[in-house]
User: Which sequence fits this backbone?
């Protein structure tokens, strides 16, 4: 009996240590999706052209699991049909030269255990009217970091029945007809949304039918409403902390909308700036703002108590979001325009019906990387030489180092330090 007890305690201790020693997706990964491993240790796929289909295309790159996808090219990839990405991939958009990669024209859906960083996804009025630009349904473990998601027809973003999801430093904006909405989150469990910019959406920034921590985001120039509750008979749990709601030219004063008593809200240090005067001078959001929407207030958070999030004061978060949200290593003209609206702090912006009304997707000259990669392992020769790797041995890319990451991951992580 005693032996069985010792064995049980040993197994419990081992599982506890394992849970706390998991490798996070990359050094700055936070929230519930932070343990996604993506294509770690698998193969490398080079995107070498801007074609919709075929060898070297983005569509082909995401078609198989176990890949880390690097980019030898920059520009706009115009897709005619929806892309369905395999699970277990890493999209290292930060490896693209110049202004990076934009996937434009239709939806992209993702599978679980994936890491998506520094890339733009834009829908189009030409895709089906029920189309969302990015879809992350029925999966477990995924993180989107510094991703721009725009021009969805139903919603820019759709997440349904998924677990362990993070969106961090993303730009989710300019939903187009017929709905012009930000995001519908349908029953995800343990979802983190932090330091994201929600802008130019008529409503649903997001609609949170979810168990979610919504921290340090900025919502700018909503139309009818900004953050929308679950508004259903199902029990939902929303931890809403350190966010800034800034009205723009299109905005009503309804920065909160459509909660019901089944929405269990923990809130702290949120601010609403509704005067559209070009300054950051919002007021503290109060209990009354939520109770008049019939939300049920709770004294303890449901998600944050289990999270590793670093929480900034709302005013500091606003500055970080302005500097970093979206694919921001080098913003393209569309994101620059959107950030320019945001910087006006109430003076400028618009909710558009089509991407053409917003100026359309600009033509961007294709750029080819000048970095030589002799063994095609995803790591440029200059970095391999500097770090004592072999430029003629692709096997060293998948070696796990003392950082817990492979050599390839150390390289792609170093691009955005």
Assistant:
């Amino acid at each position: 009996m005693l032996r069985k007890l010792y064995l049980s305690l040993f197994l419990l201790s081992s599982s506890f240590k394992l849970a706390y020693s998991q490798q996070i997706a990359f050094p700055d990964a936070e929230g519930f999706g932070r343990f996604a491993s993506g294509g770690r240790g698998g193969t490398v796929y080079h995107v070498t052209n801007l074609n919709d289909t075929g060898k070297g295309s983005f569509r082909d790159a995401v078609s198989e699991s176990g890949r880390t996808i690097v980019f030898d090219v920059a520009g706009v990839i115009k897709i005619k049909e929806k892309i369905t990405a395999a699970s277990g991939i890493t999209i290292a958009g930060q490896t693209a030269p110049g202004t990076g990669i934009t996937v434009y024209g239709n939806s992209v859906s993702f599978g679980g255990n994936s890491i998506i960083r520094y890339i733009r996804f834009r829908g189009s009025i030409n895709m089906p009217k029920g189309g969302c630009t990015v879809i992350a349904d029925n999966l477990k473990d995924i993180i989107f970091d510094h991703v721009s998601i725009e021009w969805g027809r139903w919603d820019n973003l759709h997440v349904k029945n998924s677990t362990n999801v993070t969106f961090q430093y993303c730009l989710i904006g300019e939903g187009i007809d017929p709905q012009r909405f930000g995001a519908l989150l349908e029953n995800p469990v343990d979802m983190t949304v932090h330091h994201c910019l929600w802008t130019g959406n008529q409503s649903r920034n997001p609609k949170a039918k979810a168990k979610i921590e919504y921290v340090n985001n900025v919502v700018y120039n909503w139309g009818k409403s900004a953050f929308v509750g679950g508004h259903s008979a199902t029990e939902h749990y929303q931890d809403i902390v350190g966010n800034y709601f800034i009205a723009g030219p299109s905005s009503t004063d309804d920065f909160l909308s459509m909660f019901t008593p089944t929405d269990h809200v923990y809130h702290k240090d949120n601010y609403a700036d509704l005067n559209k005067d070009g300054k950051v001078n919002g007021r503290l959001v109060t209990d009354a703002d939520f109770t008049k929407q019939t939300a049920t207030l709770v004294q303890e958070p449901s998600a944050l108590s289990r999270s590793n999030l670093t929480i900034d004061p709302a005013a500091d978060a606003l500055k970080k979001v302005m500097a970093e949200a979206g694919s921001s290593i080098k913003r393209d003209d569309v994101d620059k325009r959107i950030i320019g609206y945001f910087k006006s702090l109430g003076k400028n912006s618009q909710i558009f019906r089509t991407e053409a009304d917003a100026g359309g997707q600009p033509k961007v000259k294709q750029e080819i990387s000048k970095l030589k990669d002799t063994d095609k392992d995803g790591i440029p020769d200059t970095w391999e030489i500097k770090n004592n790797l072999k430029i003629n041995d692709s096997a060293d890319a998948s070696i796990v180092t003392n950082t817990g990451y492979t050599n390839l991951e150390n390289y792609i992580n170093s691009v955005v330090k």
